[in-house]
Design a protein that fits this description.
Elements (H helix, E strand, L loop, with lengths): L1 E5 L2 E4 L2 E10 L2 E7 L9 E5 L4 E4 L1 E6 L4 E2 L2 E2 L4 H10 L2 E9 L6 H12 L6 E7 L5 H12 L4 E5 L10 H14 L2 E5 L3 H13 L6 H5 L3 H18 L3 E3 L5 H12 L4 E5 L1 H5 L2 H4 L19 H12 L4 E2 L32 H10 L5 H15 L17 E11 L18 E11 L2 E5 L2 E2 L19
Parallel strand pairs: 1-5, 2-6, 7-10, 10-11, 11-12, 12-13, 13-14, 14-15, 15-16
Antiparallel strand pairs: 1-3, 2-3, 3-4, 6-17, 8-9, 17-18, 18-19, 19-20
Helix pairs in contact: 3-4, 4-7, 7-8
The structure holds zinc ion.
Length: about 475
Amino acid sequence: MSLLIKGGTVVTAEGTLDADVVVEGEKIAALLARGAATIGSAYDTIDATDMYVIPGGIDAHTHMEMPFGGTFSADTFETGTRAAAHGGTTAIIDFAVQAKGTSLLAALDKWHSKADGNCAIDYGFHMIVSDVNDSTLKEMDACISAGVNSFKMFMAYPGVFYATDGEILLAMQQASRSGATVMMHAENGIAIDQLVAQAIAAGRTDPVNHGLTRPPELEGEATSRAITLAKVADCPLYIVHLSASQALAAVAQARDAGQNVFAETCPQYLYLSIDDLARPDFEGAKFVASPPLRPKEHQDSLWRGLRTNDLSVVSTDHCPFCFKDQKELGRGDFSKIPNGMPGVEHRMDLLHAGVVAGQLTLARWVEVASTTPARMFGLYPRKGVIAAGSDADIVIYDPHARQTLSAATHHMNVDYSAYEGMEITGRVVTTLARGRVVIDDGTYQGSPGYGTFLPRGLNQYLL
Ligand SMILES: [Zn+2]
């Protein structure tokens, strides 16, 4: 039997359309003029009257069960993808992590074994390259053949993930030969480490110092440097979790000059600030992530960047650590607080709140949350759009419902919410993943292992 989603307002990156959507199996079969499907065929029906019907969200930056600082992020692929589905996200792209001294393909195998059989929704991988050498560089092509064609590198975290400018250049040259994209964590980790050491030595150990020792200028500097290296290597570059107006200015300048430079930001940088890091009694630890939350004035430029497309994507960098036992590892020394925040469940809602607040249009909401990530990471038009032939990853969204974000009601496997008490207008009612209802009015109806691996093509925006 086919499924008919009727009466809703279909929202795509192009705008809105009053249409009914026909789903056959895992695919969208047709968009019909409202009411046109009532004659004849047998349909299961979902009534979407007064609702938006949108392509499922694609979160292109998550870290499920990621090792960091002697612990692991608290969501597994099972719990994290279930929470994502609750929030209207139907695909994630997570990061496989190459540990120093190991091979890229071994890391990829390891991440496949973590995710395989556990995901509620479809998933792909990027590859974190932390050890650049001849064999790693050769393996990048094998990763591309295996459906992983975006490689993340770090200018931060010396001694862990950090790569030198020379190593970055080599990896960019390699990526450039095949059209793969290098993703960059752009903060000057060498300088930051000095500031961190000075703060600790001076007894400035509270969580707010995490922000104070990672000034926005050092994100701006690293972003500019990454852009320059990418230009020399002629390599597509994607700046992850951009948080600072200085970095945005560098991206805008490169884009104006026609360079293949792209950037994402995250909801935490749009809504939270260093004031949250400064919350008393170690509560600021809940907000420790890198780059750090910035002074409020950066938020306006990030929203503007989303409107002007200098920021093309909003991802979450979901990397949850529980306050108890995990964040607490850094009591008395902010540099030992595991870096990361929960968010995979709330991205669609927080961006819809931006629509309600007049920061984004409806079409732009869908574009930055679904359509552009699909194109950027080689999943379009299978994902990211409501059109005949695409996967039936569909969210029915009530734009008028009210909800209050809270750890008491969220589905992420973490003991706090970064948005505790925040009131949101808008709520996911139904999430379909490849034609199957996985969330029905707040109830999970999916199953681990339903989600399949998504081999991806190249970035579809390259000039
Ligand atoms: Zn990340």
